[in-house]
Amino acid sequence: MLQSLMQPTAFAQFIVAAFIAVLFLQSGIDKVLDFGGNLSWLQGHFAKTPLRGQVKAMLVTVTVLEVTAGAVCALGALQVAASGSTQLALWGSQAAAATVTMLFFGQRVAKDYVGAAVLVPYFILCVGAVLLMAQ
After folding, report:
1. pLDDT band at 1, cuts 50/70/90?
2. Where are the beta strands (DSSP E) in 1-135?
3. Is 135 helix (H, G, I), strand (E, B) or coil?
4. In the chain, where are the structural domains located?
5. Cα distance between residue 34 and residue 36, in whole Å
6. Which pLDDT does position 27 carry in this prediction?
7. Which long-range contacts link 3-7 to residues 24+ away (Cβ below 8 Å)?
8. How far is CA 35 from the centre of its chain?
9. What are residue 85's phi and psi, to 5 degrees?
10. For residue 4, is pLDDT > 90?
11. What does the pLDDT average to over 91-106?
12. Cα→Cα distances 97→26, 35, 39, 40, Å
């Protein structure tokens, strides 16, 4: 079991799934624990956009997707370690890539181009994870 993680591909699958799990669980849990603060900040961020009336629904959606992507990737990392299967890590990576795309869309609509640019490495990681888990 753990000896198989010494193989480069299996190790990469495990560590990438674990990294995405940490990234998305921390972000999602932060949104849950400080929902009001996040909502307030986002309402200001989107105040001058066509999305201003949808901020609460968008925050709930992104929060659910982040926690889901993180949890599925965490389970996926365990699955890779236990059996070598990447199915859960693949699904979690796909959810993570979709979530980053939503965040990127929001940043672009809000004309926060620096914030949008910060998301690009995360998107590349998630798409790379999808390809890695499909092996």
Report:
1. low
2. none
3. coil
4. 2-133
5. 6
6. 97
7. 4/84, 5/80, 5/81
8. 18
9. -75, 140
10. no
11. 98
12. 16, 23, 23, 25
